[in-house]
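Bench notes, afternoon.
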Amino acid sequence: MHFVIRPYHPSDFCALYRICLQTGDSGKDATHLFRDPELLGHIYVGPYAVAEPDLCFTLTADGAPCGYVLGTRDSQVFAEWCEREWFPVLRARYPLPAPGDHSPDAEAIRGIHRGYQPEPALVDYPAHLHIDLLPHAQGQGWGRRMIETFLERLRTLGVPAVHLGVGRRNARAIHFYERVGFQRIFEGDGWIGFGMKLNG
């Protein structure tokens, strides 16, 4: 199997949504959890690929997308863009669910209505990223190479620091981020914020 990291192309959009869903349960396949297979992609893929495609990279195996790293250079600017350009249409499409509905779909829809809100404690790490690889692309060093590709792009843009969030129960991801040089900088409610300075 021949793997390649390349810049995102708009034709990758649907494949990246699929990868997001297939890794959406703390790295495991979440397909069986959601009635609407697009919901996770609407939150964790779509706005990044549309707003900042130059910060989106696709991993392919024999030409087929099997992973991605994407993000934003400025989380506050990204949040404002999402409120202006991304979430209004989705909020009209997905009305708030009943208060007693705690299904994965309902919680994702509530996330769409809350919008993206940067964590104030991470203001010194303005960029953030998301990375997901399908199982057949894992354990071969491609995750590290994708992170390096993304970080090099941020350095080219003069971005001083980057952060990411990971769920506390995703032990494999926590170990990976620590191994590639991220440090714990914030303890959230059910998640951990990792950060990295890029200017020294």
